[in-house]
Protein: Fe-S cluster assembly protein SufD
Organism: Falsarthrobacter nasiphocae
Amino acid sequence: MTSESKTVDTGEGRVAIEGMDLEGEHLATDGGGTEQHGARAHSDGRGVTKPEGSRGERATSFDIADFPIPGGREEEWRFTPVERLGALFAADAESGRLTRDFELPEGVTEREITADEMREIVSMEPADRLAAAAVANAPSSLLVDVPAEAELTEPIRLRLTGEGGAPVFDHLVIRVGRFAKALVILEHEGTAEVTSLVSVVTGDGSDVRVVSAQLWEDTAIHAAQHDALVGRDAVYKHVAVSLGGGLVRLNANVRYAGPGGDASMYGLYFADAGQHLEHRSFVDHNVENCASNVLYKGALQGKDARTVWVGDVLIRKAAEGTDSYEKNQNLVLTDGARADSVPNLEIETGLIEGAGHASSTGRFDDEHLFYLMARGIPEKEARRLVVRGFLNEIIQKIGDDSLEERLRDAVEAELAATEI
């Protein structure tokens, strides 16, 4: 499949339109490699196509009534099997529960908060009906609080285990004080139908890493929105790892509270036969002199294995000095698997350091295989080495030895389940 990216000259800067094939459809492939690049690679202004609407114009609200139940043809839902999410769209439902096992380092607290207190802390509102339902139907919002200037030497571990039963609606608020340093790990296991909103607020000068591992059984359904408001001169990293679950849809969003913020968003997913693993990211560059980097990598194997990645970056007119890049890579291991990859880049000012995007989906790199096999490594093991190296780049971003080891073992189990 041949692809190209287009730009629009707005008179004040460049707008880079999402990667599209020659018929104007979003990139979708089951093995043919493609590559797309952003503003750095196509700044000649010859494109004339404009997007239907800015990503920044989509509705956000805590009121679930502001979001109709999607039919599946809407732009933000057209890749998602919405019929499997029906119970999670409910406007007035009694929530089931997940078993919680929390390990909180000294000084870190957790407590339930009222709706009014939650609104004082959280400024980023739900961006779709699932996230709005998570708040509306949750018994309460749970606040995990890291005090200012704390430098945690151990991670905050939040283990959430499902045992079936009624659909679960959950809202978690993570607040990290000024100049604090923290690693927060969310681990999801068992089986459940869950929709959750995770709201992260990072203080000025803080260093925060949030890792969400979806290690569900294959019967689980998990929809989530993870929002982060990144403080002035703060560093924020978000790592999403999806290996389990029959259906996972995770939206990770970033906005900045002041200049100097630096946000990185990483993702790893490995889909087996029948799994649907969908990840979406949105970086809203709303203030000047901030940076962002997005990298999601996935592998697919088996009949009807499906992955989706949609990456949005919006650089607003006020966001001069922005430096941003996003990239998605997919490795298709067997026939019958499908990856959809859609990078989107909107730029409203030309006064930036740089912005770009890339997407590739394909089979093994023959050169890598030849290099390994020429050194006496059998082809089967060589293929597995390539996959391990491909995914390990994301695992290394986690920063916790025990979880990294578990995930490497889980990837090994995935590879053992197929003949590649």
About this structure: Residues 1-51 have pLDDT under 50 and may be disordered.
